[in-house]
Amino acid sequence: MALKTPPLFFTLSLLSLLSLAFFYWNSSTNSAPPSNHRITLSSRQESINVYMSPLPRSLNYGLLEKYWALNSDSRLGSEVDREIRKTLLPEDFGKHLPYPENPIIKQYSAEYWILGDLLAPEEVKRESFARRIFDYRKADVIFVPFFATLSAELQLVINKSVFRKRVEENEDYKRQRMVIDTVKRSEAWQKSGGRDHVFVLTDPVAMWHVKDEIAPAVLLVVDFGGWYRLDSKSSSENSSGSMIHHTQVSLLKDVIVPYSFLLPKLHISENQKRPTLLYFKGAKHRHRGGLVREKLWDLLIDEPGVIIEEGFPNATGKEQSIKGMRTSEFCLHPAGDTPTSCRLFDAIQSLCIPVIVSDNIELPFEGMVDYSEFSVFVAVSDALRPNWLVGHLRNYSDKQKDRYRKNMVKVQQIFEYENGFPGGVGPAPVDGAVNHIWRKVHEKLPMIKEAIVRERRKPPGASVPLRCHCV
Ligand SMILES: *[C@@H]1O[C@H](CO)[C@@H](O)[C@H](O)[C@H]1NC(C)=O
Ligand SMILES: *[C@@H]1O[C@H](CO)[C@@H](O)[C@H](O)[C@H]1NC(C)=O
Ligand SMILES: *[C@@H]1O[C@H](CO)[C@@H](O)[C@H](O)[C@H]1NC(C)=O
Ligand SMILES: *[C@@H]1O[C@H](CO)[C@@H](O)[C@H](O)[C@H]1NC(C)=O
Ligand SMILES: *[C@@H]1O[C@H](CO)[C@@H](O)[C@H](O)[C@H]1NC(C)=O
């Protein structure tokens, strides 16, 4: 079902990207720069050269236009976007559109901020780690500017029933095919087999239909939750019990990126007494893998000092979370339907010490951030012992907790995506998430180069079984 993409389309999309960059430049000269650009990266000598695949605007900002033009979205959490829709002006379409505020979508906004940083004119982003290159042969990696999360979420709004089907009515599927067919036809992909291509797949259902085709590439994901299950299903007959075969994702080639946090940052100077010991808000029942959560819920619900509550993804729920996370010493982070969630990053912004009960969790920027300096890691088996968890947490002295909180202050900015510029086009906060993501990708360059060389020497017709990367 490959869609024909005339070369004119590419030219137009490039032009529209350029004009977007121009708009940004003009508007930014009139407004004060955001305040979070204090600390400078040690030097700009170290950077990553990024070429952008020429995709039509309909696959990124065009999707935002589609989203904001919707007139019915009755899904949970969409109230706030209904209000924003009323305030958008016709001239906003085509330039300064925000990313959705619906928490279900906003938590996955990495795609918007990464592209916005790449599109900012070079002269204003001297401190961004990614440097945009216009000749793919001089680039370290090829970034594919597809808003895969927004594409999937739009389809779920417009017609959920065809989401998993490869049919004409599934616009998300058609867009996935268009992206894949376009990049696979390019010289850049043919030279590398896609290993130096970078896709943002924050939503676990993003690019669902073409996961196997993009498997060689560098995938930016919030965790491997969905992938493990698919993988272990396909190899279950021969699998040795709990062994997970990851043939499509691996910490070696992929990068774990943070969710976008949804709660406002609490400054340490605003920190007040925290009368509650442990706080958790969320759904008790999750469709997959939430067994631990349910058992913990039953164990903790009647414990003194513990607040566990169901929440809604609307303004009431947000107020509830802000209050809960700012008045509690510890915030519980059990495995839900995915190993991670934006709750962890909300806890950090609220200076609530995370208690992570999830035996094999992948976290963003490990090696750059040591989570054990400000989080409590608890084995699932211990957490499920009656009264154990509360006793364990009560054993932390005030001094220890203060030290954890001070350490947390140092990492708050690392998870910041927003750059404060209209339309999201502008340099990313210097010490924020986008620059850390590119640093992580940069660390993988030697391995990517090696893999490309290995791939190239293979004689035609050679068949190599999919391998498990055991890390
Ligand atoms: C750029 O800004 C100037 C001064 O604020 C304004 O007069 C001009 O119309 C703007 N140009 C564009 C293309 O927005
Ligand atoms: C969704 O697509 C299916 C298959 O084409 C169609 O039968 C159904 O009416 C569509 N639903 C909506 C709400 O458009
Ligand atoms: C399991 O292993 C056997 C022999 O090694 C092989 O023939 C079969 O295709 C494998 N099945 C799956 C589902 O991988
Ligand atoms: C949020 O949702 C809950 C449950 O549907 C409802 O009771 C509450 O009034 C809602 N709050 C707002 C601000 O819409
Ligand atoms: C808490 O500390 C006491 C005294 O040091 C110790 O006996 C107990 O095992 C600790 N409890 C937990 C759950 O770590």
TrEMBL record:
<keyword id="KW-0333">Golgi apparatus</keyword>
<keyword id="KW-0808">Transferase</keyword>
<protein>
    <recommendedName>
        <fullName>Exostosin GT47 domain-containing protein</fullName>
    </recommendedName>
</protein>
<feature type="signal peptide">
    <location>
        <begin position="1"/>
        <end position="21"/>
    </location>
</feature>
<keyword id="KW-0732">Signal</keyword>
<dbReference type="GO" id="GO:0016757">
    <property type="term" value="F:glycosyltransferase activity"/>
</dbReference>
<dbReference type="InterPro" id="IPR004263">
    <property type="entry name" value="Exostosin"/>
</dbReference>
<keyword id="KW-0812">Transmembrane</keyword>
<keyword id="KW-0735">Signal-anchor</keyword>
<dbReference type="GO" id="GO:0000139">
    <property type="term" value="C:Golgi membrane"/>
</dbReference>
<dbReference type="Pfam" id="PF03016">
    <property type="entry name" value="Exostosin_GT47"/>
</dbReference>
<comment type="similarity">
    <text>Belongs to the glycosyltransferase 47 family.</text>
</comment>
<dbReference type="InterPro" id="IPR040911">
    <property type="entry name" value="Exostosin_GT47"/>
</dbReference>
<keyword id="KW-0328">Glycosyltransferase</keyword>
<feature type="domain" description="Exostosin GT47">
    <location>
        <begin position="45"/>
        <end position="390"/>
    </location>
</feature>
